[in-house]
Amino acid sequence: MQEPQIPDDVTGTELDKDVRRDLGALAADNATAVARHLVMVARLIDDDPSRALEHARAAQRRAGRVGAVREAAGLAAYRAGEYEEALRELRTARRLTGSQVHLPVMADCERGLGRPERALEAAASPAAAELDRAGQIELAIVVAGARGDLGEHDAAVLELQLPELAGRVAPELREAQERLQEAHDDALVAAGRRPARPAQAGTVDDDDDGVVLWEEA
Questions:
Q1: Of 46, 83, 93, 174, which has the highest C-beta tally within 10 A?
Q2: 59 phi/psi in degrees, rounded to 5
Q3: CATH of 8-98, one of 1.25.40, 1.10.1200, 3.40.50, 2.80.10
Q4: Under CATH, which number does the domain 100-206 receive?
């Protein structure tokens, strides 16, 4: 199968060092090719998720037993709206890495597939206790969305009434706090109540930058 083209300036060294280490078990030429595809995923995932997914699939075909590669494929599929594929890839990544970090994304995939009850089941699983605070906030946002999907709008508001909703938070939680505030405003509107402040542009589910696993140097 022909792989998507990669610009000559992409070397693969742009990847986060932890991801490059995960590729260390591959043959050198293959590791470089996989790394270059992952760089393209990172470059394209916000603006062209379909092309990002092409690169993620190419990386997966080359290195399907590497957890970081399956994570990249899952996140790219999620952003492209391919929720079944995203679930499959992220479940495989979880088996390979033992990490629950993508549980909120997996639960949101269930929502995308029209299965809000399964999203709630995932959120109630013991795995949720392994999330850090930012992950717990993201999961609460997904749970609130699932409640809204089921028409339980007041319950959705309650899910989002976390301590981080107002007041100061640590720098690493500021993005999650902003998303929480936006989700809370949206939930209030859906429940027929007025937000305490004007709702900000954008939606909670359109941006999952907090779960991207690699970065360019």
A1: 93
A2: -65, -40
A3: 1.25.40
A4: 1.25.40
